[in-house]
Amino acid sequence: MKSTLKTVLGKFGPFLGLALVILFFSLPAETRQFFLSYHNFKIILTQTVIVAVGSLGMTLVIVSGGIDLSVGSSIALTSVIGALMIQHGWNTAGVVAAVVAAGGLLGLINGLAITSLRMTPFIITLGMLGIGRGVAKWLAANQTVNYDQSPINGWMTTARPFGYALPAGVSVAIVLAVLTSLVLRRTVFGRHIFALGSNEATARLCGVPTFRLKVLVYAVAGCLFGLSGLFQLSRLRQGDPTVAVGLELDIIAAVIIGGASLNGGVGSVLGSMIGALIMSVLRNGSQQMGWPTYFQEIIIGLVIIVAVFLDRLRQGRPQ
Amino acid sequence: MSSAGAGLRLSGIRKSFGATLALRSVSLEIGQGEVHALIGENGAGKSTLMKVLSGAHAPDSGSMELGGRPYAPTGPHDARMKGVAMIYQELNLALHLPAWENVVMGAEPARLGWIDRRAARVLAKGALAQLGHERFDLDKNAGDCTIAEQQVIEIARALLIKPKVLIMDEPTSSLGRADTERLFAAIRRLKAQGVSIIYISHFLEECREVADRYSILKDGESVGSGPMMGASLDQIISLMTGRAAVDLYPRSEREPGAVVLEVKEAASAPRLVRASFTLRAGEIFGLAGLIGAGRTDLLRTIFGLDETERGSVAVFGSVGRSATPRLRWAEGVGFLSENRKEEGLMLGQSIAENMTLTKLGTFGRLGWVSPSAQRRVASRWITELSVRCAGPDQAVGALSGGNQQKVALARLLEHPARILLLDEPTRGIDVGSKAQIYERIGQLAASGKAVVVVSSYLPELFGLCDRIGVMCRGELAEVRPRADWTEEGLLKAALGGG
C-alpha cells in the first residue's frame, strides 16, 4: 500500500499539488467565477513566464548538482541592458540578442569561476548576486531606464480581455520548456548533466568532460536568465535595476517543488514548470481572496516545505 | 598464560551478511594486560570481528566474555561503556578544535551544560600523560598536529573511559619508525596498567616486536594462535595462506601478443613512487600489495585520473602528454573502480544510463540519445552477465553488490575497451558472481584484450594472472611470471621483506 502511494506521488506529485491549489481557490463561490475564467488563466500564465523561463535554466543547473543564486540580479541587469539598447535605437532582434548574450556572459563567468577557482557554486553565485545588482544600478545610473516605445512591450500584455490568443511571452516560454526538456532527456549534453549531478566522480571516470560541461551549463542557464530579463523588461516597459530582488528564491523553489534534488541528478522541466505554476496560482488566488501579501508569503513558504517533504516520502529515503 | 576470566574470551563467533559468511567460527582468548596480535590476509574477517567486538555488529552465534562476565554489547556506545574501545585506522578528530577538546569529546565534564574547562584540561592532560606525553600542547589544533600526534589524541580519548580492552587497527600504517617506537612505548605503558590490547597489523615484524601472543584468522576462522616469542615468520605466513586452490579459475587458452601498454618510471602524488611494466594483448597482469601500497594509484595514473608527475605511459605505442579519462576511453582503455559507491557508479541512475555513459554519443545522431537503443543494449548485457534486476530502467542503487559490479563491468565490455584496468574486480561479491567474473576476464584475455587486475586476495591473483607484480610503499618492485611466485614469497615482497 505504501509503495502504491509512492508511485502515485512520484508520477503525479506536482500535478496533484497544482490540482489541489486550483481546487482550493475554486471553492468559494464569490471568487470562483473569475478565478476559473479564461482571462484569469491567461493572467496566471503570463505572470508565470519570468519565473518559468528562469527555472528552465535553474533546472539545468540544479540537475547538474549546482545552484545559481545570481538569477534575480541577472534578470535586473539584463533588463537594464535591454532598456539601454532600446534607448540607443537598436532594433528588436539586436536587443534580444544582446540581452541573451549578456545573460550568457554572466553565466559563463559564474561557470569559469566555479571550475577554475574550484569554489562551490553557492559562494561564487552569491558573489555574482551582489556584483550583478551593483552593475545594473551603475549602468542605470541608479534610476529606472525609460524609453518611448518598443515592440517588446507587447509580449507580456493581457490587456485584451476577450481575445483568446496567448501573449508572445507565454508561447515562447512553452516552446522553450519543450526544447529544454528534450535537450535534458534526449541529448548527450543533457544526459551528461544528469551524470555530472548524480555522481561527479563517475562522470569523470567515464570520460565526461566535467569542467567544460559545468561551464556550459552555467552559460546556457545564463542565456535563459537573460531571456527572463527580457520578459521582465517587457512587463515593466522600463529597465529597473531594483527589480527581481529575491526572485532567485522563487525560481529555486519552483524547481524544488517540481521534484528536483538539491544534491543533483534528479529533476525535470515539466516538474519545474508545474512548480512555477503552483506559486503563480497561489499568488493569484490569494490576491483574489483579498489576503494580505504576508499571508501569501507564509503559504508559499509552507508549500515549499510540504512539497519537499512529500518528495522525500516518494523517494523513501530517510534524511 | 594469563589468568582466564580477567581478559576477553570469544568462542565460536559466527556472522554472515546475507549469503556471505564473513566469520565462520572464531575463538580467541586474550588475557588481562596482554598485547595480542591479530593477523590475517585482507578479507580474512578481521574487520568484521572487530565490528562484532566493538558492538557495531551482533554475532549470529557464539559467545563473548569480558572480565569473566558475559559480554553482549547492544551498540558501539554500549561497548565503550563496558570497556571496549577501538582506534580505527582512519582517525576521527575534529580538526578545527584544540587537542584537549578532542580528548574529552563526548565525555566533557560539565555543570548544567556548561563545560568545566579546567577539569576538562586536567582530564585531557592526565590521559595524555598515561601515554607518556606529559608535555603535549593542549591548545594545539588537531589539524595542526602530525599524524602521530593525532593518533595520540585519539588513544587518549579512548583512555578516558578506562577501557579494559583497546583495539588498534593498523596503527602504524602511516607512522615513521621513530613514531612507531613511541607508540610501542605507549602500548607497553598501557599493558603495565592492565589494559588488554588487540593489535591488528600487516607488518609481522612489528607484531613480533610488540605482541605477547598472536592469533591468525583465515577465511573467517581462527586457524592458530600461540606465544609470539619463538614463532617463526614462515610458520605464521604459511598459516595465513595455506589453502588448497579451488577451481574457481578456469584458465582460458591464450597467447600473449603485441605490447599494448608500456609504463616507464611512472610516479604521481602522493603515493606512487616508481612503477615500470609492460602489458601485452591477451595477457592478464596482476598487481599485489598491501592496501595503500600504491596499486590503485598506479591504475589511476595510467587512466589519467591522477596526474603523472614523472615517467611515461604509452598506450598502443603512443605517449599522450596529458592523459584524461576521456582520452583513455577514446583510445580503448577502460577502468573499473574499486569504489563502486563513491566513484564507480551513479547509484541514483538507471542500469541503462550507467552501462552506456562512456559512449552516449553512439546511441543516436547529432548529439541526440535514443533511450530505447540504450535500453536494448542494457537488456543484452543483463542477460549475458545474468544481472539480477527488474529491468534496464531500475536504479543501480537498488541492486546487490555483485550485480552492481556486473553493471560496472558491462560498461567496459560494451565500450568496448581493449585494455581493461580492473581494481578489486570482485570486492564484496559472492562466490557465484566471482566465478562468473573470473570466467569473463579469462575469455576477454583469450579474445586478445589486455587486462590488469589489482587484488588484495592472493588466490585470485594466482588463479587469474599470467604475470604478477608486487607493490610495496609506492614502488612496483618485482614482476615475475605466476609460476615463479609462491604465496609466501609474494607476501614477503608485499611486506617489504624481500
Characterization of the model:
The complex is a heterodimer of chains A (319) and B (498). Chain A is globular. Chain A has a single domain, classed as ABC transporter involved in vitamin B12 uptake, BtuC. By secondary structure, chain A is mostly helical. Chain A has helices spanning 2-26, 29-35, 38-63, 71-87, 92-116, 121-139, 168-186, 188-198, 200-205, 210-236, 247-257, 269-289, 293-315. Chain B is an alpha/beta fold and 498 residues long. Chain B has 2 domains: 8-241, 3-Layer(aba) Sandwich (Rossmann fold), CATH 3.40.50.300; 259-494, Rossmann fold (3-Layer(aba) Sandwich). Chain B has 17 helices and 22 strands. Chain B has helices at residues 46-53, 76-81, 99-104, 117-130, 147-159, 177-192, 204-210, 233-241, 295-303, 325-331, 340-344, 351-356, 371-384, 401-414, 431-446, 458-464, 487-494; strands at 8-17, 20-30, 35-39, 61-66, 69-70, 84-87, 110-111, 114-115, 165-169, 196-200, 213-218, 221-227, 259-268, 272-280, 284-289, 310-315, 318-319, 333-336, 419-423, 450-454, 467-472, 475-481. Chain B has a 6-stranded mixed sheet with strand order 6-9-10-3-11-12, sandwiched between helices. Chain B has a 6-stranded mixed sheet with strand order 18-19-20-15-21-22, with helices on both faces. In chain B, helix 4 crosses helix 5 (147-159). The longest helix of chain B has 16 residues, at 177-192. Chains A and B meet through helix 8 and helix 9 of A and helix 10 and helix 11 of B.
Bulk shape of chain B = globular
> Approximately what portion of the residues of chain B adopt beta-strand conformation?
25-35%
State the CATH architecture of chain A.
Answer: Orthogonal Bundle
Residue share in helices of chain B? 25-40%
Q: What is the name of the CATH class of the largest domain in chain B?
A: Alpha Beta
Tally of individual domains of chain A: 1
Q: If classified by CATH, what would the architecture of the largest domain in chain B be?
A: 3-Layer(aba) Sandwich
Number of helices of chain B: 17
Order of strands, main sheet of chain B, comes to 6-9-10-3-11-12
Largest interface: A-B, 23 and 31 residues
* Topology-level CATH name of the largest domain in chain B: Rossmann fold
Total strands of chain B: the figure is 22
Largest sheet of chain B: 6 strands, mixed
Percentage of residues in helical conformation of chain A: over 70%
What is the mean pLDDT of chain B?
87
